[in-house]
Amino acid sequence: MARSWRELPTGRVVHLHAGQDMHLHGDPDAVALAIDPLPDDAPALVTYVPRPAGAPAAVVADVLRELESAALAMFPAWLPEADGITGTGGAAVPAVRAHALRAGSATRHFAPFLAHLAERALRERARGVTAGSGTAGRAGTFPPEIRAAGLARVLCSGYRRAEAAILVRMPPDFSPSAEEVLVAACEWLAHHGGFGVWLIGPPLRSVDRIETVTAPIPEGVAALVREVEPGGGEEFPPPTLTFPPLAGSPHPGSAAERRLEAALSPCAWAAGREWNQLHASGPLSNPIRVDLIWRAERCVVEIDGPEHLSPRRLAADGQRDLRLRRDGYAVRRFTNEQVLERLGTVLAELERFLHQCRRGTFEGSLHA
Predict the structure, then answer these.
(1) pLDDT tens for each residue of 322-364
(2) 235: left (phi over 0), alpha (psi -120 to 50) or beta
(3) Domain 255-359 top-level CATH class
(4) How far is Cα 303 from Cα 290, in angstroms, rounded to an integer?
(5) What are the domain boundaries of the chain?
(6) What angle do helix axes 144-159 and 176-193 make, rounded to 10 degrees?
(7) pTM, 2 dp
(8) How many other CB atoms sit within 10 Å of the CB of residue 327?
(9) Which residues fall within 8 angstroms of residue 242, CB to CB, at 6 or more apart?
(10) β-strands 241-242, 330-335 pairing
């Protein structure tokens, strides 16, 4: 059993199970809950849900498109020298390319690929293009091998991690041929990109060359998964690729977080907010990642997507909220739909919530 995420292999494909307890074998919920927030000793981790494909090359192409979309959305986290460069007029494009070329010459990045990706990110940000909008994949003349290795390094740079890994959620109903196609594609990504490719979900049925490794699941997460049934089928299928947020800014893959931040920016009453920060009850406690926090006012706001409706996620959210309230924080939750469809109402409720926290009168706080 791996005692830490650092001990899990990179550069090859393994199948992860969530613990010696047979109840946890093949349970992706345990892994998903264990990596939110991303553990300090973990590589840069993204989660991929495979789509049906007839050949390994098609799977590889799909993964690279999704990784490019994530990298473009994360810009300039992986090229911090370009922070503050906006638009595409004047010296903006030459400047961002120059920063990328200099970064490439001083690091393991392939400078031409990094410059190309940085220019694309700048142009798409200027056009208001967002993650998941289907614009990724225009990779110029770079072959898949260059893109795979380059994107792995971009992920490492963006998350300040030494290595990168892809969690692949195995569908329960894959045919033997589809399983072989997917595993072959994963082996290609591990070999050419240097990724750790970690399969999660049901055990492989037809491919027998993949080692099984036990993931380091905290006991609290394991207990929750044992006690709470997963519920029925997913009413809202997960995105093809998900990736962790970046501390200090709205999640680049969340339209709701980005729209809320744009609405809060001109509001004087919203000063002091911080996006996607960690909170720990004490030096030995596992940290909690909160979407939006006002530390001085001791209040937290969470923006929930449809995945928060699953029984296990609801139970985990309840535990998190209880810990935060015990630590003296008030907690308010909004859904993506509320933010995107009734933004004015959300802003009014949020302003009232903050004023109540500042006066110490919010009824959900232990200091009320």
Answers:
(1) 999 999 999 999 999 999 999 999 999 999 999 998 887 655 4
(2) alpha
(3) alpha beta
(4) 9
(5) 5-242, 255-359
(6) 70
(7) 0.91
(8) 16
(9) 46, 47, 253
(10) unpaired
